[in-house]
């Protein structure tokens, strides 16, 4: 299935935060990291400092040699974290499928949010604008059918860039780029590949898979697909919970089926509400019963469809209750949960959902 992935990368993040907060530093070479008279490296450099050849991860002493009049500042991690969480809030308003890579960089999966690429582009533009409105900081954004392409795209037009890679042009997009643009290709691999005659991604694209295996061995496996713009790695959000559940403990143990059914209906409504808030749908529904002696039993059912509907959750919950509560023993606690959430690709595309409504014509 077609995916819409975006990669958002803040521009010279630490240095940009410092320049924003201290207007006297704007337009000047600013370097954040270890002081130049000590051992240690640069964490970030403003674009003005980069003109002198200063790069992050460079020893501070080297940076000082390249630009002695640069302003060297210590890392103010707490401040950057605050700004980072403001940015993350903007991401999460748009989708729960957010994979932060660092304080200033994240992948977002908009597949279930966008009907088509144009809509995904629109959402991505809005995220970029919202970040600027909220933080007065610029970022660069790549929009693409996968993470690999989105990351390259966000990097190519820095700073304040916005680049879309369309599925049909992905091979042409990659063709002229040097092989070190491929993730996983560091200096050592680059040297090895150059030794084998591969300089640009075009050189890789022009080889059949067998030929590539013959020439570069085990590296061929992943490089072949990446060189053709293929990457199916998912956006892994660590925020997404494994299940959504609610439970109710009775003040007095209950044996009345109607009372249990009533509580179950309320729990279903609450679970459905939370699912909708988090933009999640699940297909496994679990009922939990705890008896007066604290013995706890659960029973679950996995349906074919993903749901966030209270009625569906409730009716499956009722059936499970009837099956599980054969003993009619006194119940202390009843719980209802939904799990086995849809990944963005599994979720029904918006277009299909809309087609469920009758056409006005
Ligand atoms: Mg960055």
Overview of the molecule:
The protein is of the alpha+beta class and about 350 residues long. Among the domains are: about 15-75, MutS, DNA mismatch repair protein, domain I (3-Layer(aba) Sandwich), CATH 3.40.1170; about 170-225, DNA polymerase, domain 1, CATH 1.10.150; about 245-340, DNA polymerase, Y-family, little finger domain (Dna Ligase, domain 1). It is built from 14 helices and 12 strands. The chain has helices at about 15-20, 45-50, 60-65, 75-95, 115-135, 145-155, 170-175, 185-195, 200-205, 210-215, 220-225, 255-280, 310-325, 350-355; strands at about 5-10, 30-35, 40-45, 70-75, 100, 105-110, 140-145, 160-165, 245-255, 280-290, 295-305, 330-340. The strands form 3 sheets. A 5-stranded mixed beta sheet has the order 5-6-1-7-8. Strands 9-12-10-11 form a 4-stranded antiparallel beta sheet, with helices on one face. A 3-stranded mixed beta sheet has the order 3-2-4. A hairpin with a 4-residue loop joins strand 10 (about 280-290) and strand 11. Helix 4 (about 75-95) runs antiparallel to helix 5 and helix 12 (about 255-280) crosses helix 13 (about 310-325). The longest helix is centred in the last third of the chain and has 22 residues, at about 255-280. It is globular, with a radius of gyration of 27 Å. Residues about 350-360 have low confidence and may be disordered.
